[in-house]
Design goal:
With about 300 residues, this protein is mainly beta. It has three domains: about 120 residues, Rossmann fold (3-Layer(aba) Sandwich), CATH 3.40.50.300; about 80 residues, Elongation Factor Tu (Ef-tu), domain 3; about 80 residues, Beta Barrel (Elongation Factor Tu (Ef-tu), domain 3). Helices cover about 15% and strands about 45% of the residues. The protein is built from four helices and 22 strands.
Length: about 300
């Protein structure tokens, strides 16, 4: 079983970097690129709809263990990316540039990123390895659809453990409480496999539910995951946000769930209220206000 890593590639030269480093895969709110070798698969996640769509960046960062900043000059979007990387605490990264952009990262999680010329940064990305998250299998769903002659198929990422053929998993959140989904077959890089490890990009053929129920943002897990319409979380506020007036209405993004919510702030915590249940498994949530200019990111929040 090959090792897997996902890298967010950010900046005005992100597409150029990805095209030089890997083979193009699918795209939704972000574009995926894959580089496969004898023992590992590197997936590059390019937020090509950002900065117009904040969710494109948020999804890529949530899926990734490392980051590459491919840009030659600073701008407002670059600043927003630095704020988001800092709030999520993403400390493994590389500047693919020789123009001194690392100077702008002082005091953030990106201040210790390696700095390399463009071609050397490509090799840096290809050599990344991520420590697998142990535990019962958990998959975040990217999309699902019906394939004639095959059945119901979902595409997603293994975020914990190893998923195997015939595993029975439960979808969260779900109106069909307790209903299990059985994995009929697994594909990685268009090849049939019996199992897929942590951080794999997978295609699963499944039975026991419908593609409408197994939609973008859902989590499939071998152990229970909390679902809630209200969460109280420890908060880290952006140093660039207005400290006197944090927004009451904003969006929270964790995994591939980006949901509007109402926020009640205190000094070191925030209470988030959602219009419908969300699945929450302890990950950091990126909080952003779409009604303000860049940087739209105002805070991150995680379980106390």
């Amino acid at each position: 079983m090959k090792k897997n890593s996902t890298i967010a590639v950010i900046g005005s030269k992100a597409e150029e970097f990805c095209r030089a480093a890997a083979k193009k895969g699918g795209e939704t709110d972000y574009r995926l690129w894959h580089a496969s070798s004898a023992d590992k698969i590197i997936t590059l996640c390019e937020p090509f709809r950002w900065p117009e769509k904040m969710v494109s960046l948020a999804y890529c960062l949530n899926l990734s263990q490392h980051a590459v900043i491919a840009q030659d000059s600073p701008d407002a979007a670059f600043g927003e990316a630095l704020v988001a990387l800092d709030l999520l605490g993403m400390k493994s990264g590389c500047f693919a540039t020789e123009y001194g952009l690392e100077e702008y990262a002082k005091g953030t999680a990106a201040e210790k990123y390696e700095v390399k010329p463009f071609n050397e940064a490509i090799e840096w990305a290809r050599q990344r390895e991520s420590k697998p998250v142990d535990g019962p299998a958990k998959i975040v769903v990217d999309e699902s659809f019906n394939v004639k002659g095959v059945g119901q198929v979902l595409l997603g990422f293994v975020e914990r453990g190893t998923v195997r053929v015939h595993d029975k998993l439960t979808a969260y959140p779900s109106k069909a409480v307790g209903r299990s989904v059985e994995v009929r077959s697994i594909q990685v890089q268009d090849e049939d496999v019996g199992e897929a490890g942590c951080f794999s990009r997978v295609g699963l053929c499944f039975k026991g539910s419908t593609t409408e129920e197994i939609s973008r943002g859902k989590m499939l897990s071998a152990q229970p995951i909390q679902t809630a319409i209200e969460l109280e979380l420890r908060v880290q506020k952006s140093r660039y946000a207005n400290k006197k007036e944090f927004p009451r209405h904003l969006h929270a993004c964790f995994g591939l769930q980006s949901v509007p919510c109402e926020a009640e702030w205190s000094a070191d915590s925030v209470r988030l209220r959602f219009g419908e249940p969300v699945a929450y498994d302890g990950e950091k949530a990126l909080l952003y206000d779409l009604n303000r200019g860049l940087p739209r990111v105002v805070a991150s929040a995680e379980k106390n």
